[in-house]
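Pair request: fold both.
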Amino acid sequence: MGVKYTEKQYKSLSERFNKMSFTQKLVTIKNNSEIFLLEVSDGNFFLRLHDNDAMFKEYDLFFEFPQFLSDKDYSDLFIFMDIKIAIVK
Protein backbone atom coordinates (compact mmCIF):
# COMPACT_ATOMS: atom_id res chain seq x y z
CA MET A 1 0.00 0.00 0.00
CA GLY A 2 1.29 3.42 -0.93
CA VAL A 3 1.42 6.69 0.93
CA LYS A 4 -1.99 8.22 1.59
CA TYR A 5 -2.61 11.72 0.28
CA THR A 6 -5.76 13.80 0.02
CA GLU A 7 -7.43 14.62 -3.29
CA LYS A 8 -6.12 18.19 -2.99
CA GLN A 9 -2.55 16.91 -2.47
CA TYR A 10 -2.80 14.57 -5.47
CA LYS A 11 -4.09 17.45 -7.60
CA SER A 12 -1.23 19.69 -6.48
CA LEU A 13 1.30 16.93 -7.18
CA SER A 14 -0.24 16.26 -10.59
CA GLU A 15 -0.08 19.95 -11.57
CA ARG A 16 3.69 19.93 -11.02
CA PHE A 17 4.08 16.47 -12.60
CA ASN A 18 2.13 17.42 -15.73
CA LYS A 19 4.49 20.35 -16.43
CA MET A 20 7.55 18.07 -16.45
CA SER A 21 9.32 16.72 -19.50
CA PHE A 22 9.04 13.00 -20.21
CA THR A 23 12.52 12.41 -18.75
CA GLN A 24 11.70 14.42 -15.62
CA LYS A 25 8.55 12.33 -15.19
CA LEU A 26 10.60 9.12 -15.36
CA VAL A 27 12.98 10.43 -12.69
CA THR A 28 10.04 11.46 -10.51
CA ILE A 29 8.40 8.04 -10.87
CA LYS A 30 11.70 6.32 -10.04
CA ASN A 31 12.39 8.56 -7.04
CA ASN A 32 8.83 8.23 -5.71
CA SER A 33 8.22 4.52 -6.15
CA GLU A 34 6.13 4.51 -2.97
CA ILE A 35 3.60 6.70 -4.82
CA PHE A 36 3.84 5.73 -8.50
CA LEU A 37 3.80 2.52 -10.49
CA LEU A 38 4.13 2.11 -14.25
CA GLU A 39 2.10 -0.67 -15.86
CA VAL A 40 2.52 -1.86 -19.42
CA SER A 41 0.03 -3.90 -21.41
CA ASP A 42 0.37 -4.69 -25.13
CA GLY A 43 2.86 -1.83 -25.54
CA ASN A 44 0.63 0.72 -23.78
CA PHE A 45 1.92 2.46 -20.67
CA PHE A 46 -0.24 3.41 -17.70
CA LEU A 47 0.77 5.51 -14.71
CA ARG A 48 -0.81 4.13 -11.55
CA LEU A 49 -0.81 5.04 -7.87
CA HIS A 50 0.03 2.54 -5.16
CA ASP A 51 -2.78 3.98 -3.02
CA ASN A 52 -5.74 1.68 -3.76
CA ASP A 53 -8.26 4.20 -2.44
CA ALA A 54 -6.85 6.90 -4.73
CA MET A 55 -6.98 4.47 -7.66
CA PHE A 56 -10.62 3.64 -6.86
CA LYS A 57 -11.37 7.39 -6.88
CA GLU A 58 -9.45 7.63 -10.20
CA TYR A 59 -6.94 10.20 -8.91
CA ASP A 60 -4.42 8.62 -11.27
CA LEU A 61 -6.27 10.37 -14.08
CA PHE A 62 -4.98 13.72 -12.73
CA PHE A 63 -1.52 12.73 -13.99
CA GLU A 64 -0.55 13.04 -17.66
CA PHE A 65 1.74 10.30 -18.91
CA PRO A 66 2.00 9.15 -22.53
CA GLN A 67 0.13 5.92 -23.07
CA PHE A 68 1.86 5.44 -26.42
CA LEU A 69 5.47 6.53 -26.70
CA SER A 70 6.58 8.75 -29.56
CA ASP A 71 9.95 8.45 -31.26
CA LYS A 72 11.17 11.33 -29.10
CA ASP A 73 9.93 9.60 -25.94
CA TYR A 74 11.77 6.40 -26.88
CA SER A 75 14.88 8.43 -27.71
CA ASP A 76 14.68 10.24 -24.34
CA LEU A 77 14.19 6.91 -22.58
CA PHE A 78 17.32 5.38 -24.08
CA ILE A 79 19.34 8.55 -23.50
CA PHE A 80 18.12 8.48 -19.89
CA MET A 81 19.45 4.91 -19.63
CA ASP A 82 22.72 6.09 -21.22
CA ILE A 83 22.26 3.88 -24.29
CA LYS A 84 23.50 5.39 -27.52
CA ILE A 85 21.03 5.32 -30.40
CA ALA A 86 20.98 6.46 -33.99
CA ILE A 87 17.94 8.40 -35.16
CA VAL A 88 16.98 7.47 -38.70
CA LYS A 89 14.84 9.90 -40.67
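--- second member of the pair ---
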Amino acid sequence: MDLVGIIVLENRRKMKFTVLTNPKGFDQGTINALISGLFTEVSQLPAKPDHLIILGETYTAKQLEPYLQPGTTVEAVVGYDNPRLPFRPLL
Protein backbone atom coordinates (compact mmCIF):
# COMPACT_ATOMS: atom_id res chain seq x y z
CA MET A 1 0.00 0.00 0.00
CA ASP A 2 1.25 3.49 -0.79
CA LEU A 3 1.49 6.42 1.59
CA VAL A 4 -1.80 7.96 0.38
CA GLY A 5 -3.63 4.70 1.04
CA ILE A 6 -2.20 4.52 4.54
CA ILE A 7 -3.27 8.10 5.26
CA VAL A 8 -6.80 7.42 3.98
CA LEU A 9 -7.12 4.33 6.19
CA GLU A 10 -5.83 6.25 9.22
CA ASN A 11 -8.26 9.11 8.59
CA ARG A 12 -11.19 6.68 8.29
CA ARG A 13 -10.16 5.03 11.55
CA LYS A 14 -10.35 8.41 13.33
CA MET A 15 -13.58 9.69 11.72
CA LYS A 16 -16.28 10.80 14.14
CA PHE A 17 -19.99 10.16 13.76
CA THR A 18 -23.11 10.64 15.81
CA VAL A 19 -25.79 8.01 15.24
CA LEU A 20 -29.38 9.04 15.92
CA THR A 21 -32.04 6.34 16.22
CA ASN A 22 -35.79 6.84 16.41
CA PRO A 23 -38.24 3.95 15.79
CA LYS A 24 -40.69 6.42 14.22
CA GLY A 25 -38.11 7.70 11.75
CA PHE A 26 -37.12 11.31 11.11
CA ASP A 27 -39.14 13.97 9.37
CA GLN A 28 -37.62 16.41 6.91
CA GLY A 29 -37.98 19.29 9.38
CA THR A 30 -35.73 17.54 11.89
CA ILE A 31 -33.16 16.77 9.23
CA ASN A 32 -33.19 20.38 7.99
CA ALA A 33 -32.86 21.70 11.55
CA LEU A 34 -29.82 19.49 12.19
CA ILE A 35 -28.13 20.50 8.95
CA SER A 36 -28.72 24.23 9.31
CA GLY A 37 -28.35 24.41 13.09
CA LEU A 38 -25.13 22.40 13.30
CA PHE A 39 -23.68 23.35 9.89
CA THR A 40 -22.98 19.70 9.18
CA GLU A 41 -23.80 16.80 6.89
CA VAL A 42 -26.40 14.19 7.74
CA SER A 43 -26.65 10.82 6.05
CA GLN A 44 -29.74 8.61 5.82
CA LEU A 45 -30.69 5.52 3.83
CA PRO A 46 -34.25 4.87 2.64
CA ALA A 47 -33.81 1.26 3.80
CA LYS A 48 -33.06 2.49 7.35
CA PRO A 49 -35.40 5.45 7.94
CA ASP A 50 -35.05 5.05 11.71
CA HIS A 51 -31.34 6.03 11.61
CA LEU A 52 -29.52 9.28 10.86
CA ILE A 53 -25.76 9.71 10.95
CA ILE A 54 -24.19 13.11 11.60
CA LEU A 55 -20.78 13.17 9.95
CA GLY A 56 -17.58 14.65 11.31
CA GLU A 57 -18.40 15.17 14.97
CA THR A 58 -19.69 13.42 18.06
CA TYR A 59 -22.54 15.07 19.95
CA THR A 60 -24.31 14.21 23.17
CA ALA A 61 -28.07 13.98 23.60
CA LYS A 62 -27.94 17.16 25.68
CA GLN A 63 -26.24 19.08 22.85
CA LEU A 64 -28.80 17.86 20.31
CA GLU A 65 -31.85 18.26 22.52
CA PRO A 66 -33.24 21.33 20.66
CA TYR A 67 -33.24 19.38 17.37
CA LEU A 68 -34.48 15.93 18.40
CA GLN A 69 -37.88 14.34 18.27
CA PRO A 70 -39.08 12.51 21.40
CA GLY A 71 -37.78 8.94 21.60
CA THR A 72 -34.51 9.62 19.79
CA THR A 73 -31.34 8.00 21.10
CA VAL A 74 -27.87 9.39 20.46
CA GLU A 75 -24.64 7.41 20.20
CA ALA A 76 -21.11 8.67 19.47
CA VAL A 77 -19.14 6.39 17.16
CA VAL A 78 -15.51 6.68 16.04
CA GLY A 79 -14.23 4.88 12.95
CA TYR A 80 -15.72 4.47 9.49
CA ASP A 81 -15.49 0.68 9.75
CA ASN A 82 -17.00 0.57 13.25
CA PRO A 83 -19.66 -2.17 13.41
CA ARG A 84 -21.84 0.12 15.59
CA LEU A 85 -22.62 2.22 12.50
CA PRO A 86 -26.01 1.08 11.12
CA PHE A 87 -24.68 1.72 7.59
CA ARG A 88 -21.63 3.30 6.00
CA PRO A 89 -22.40 6.88 5.03
CA LEU A 90 -21.21 8.20 1.71
CA LEU A 91 -18.18 10.43 2.14
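Observation on the second member. The CA atoms of residues 73 and 82 lie 18 Å apart.
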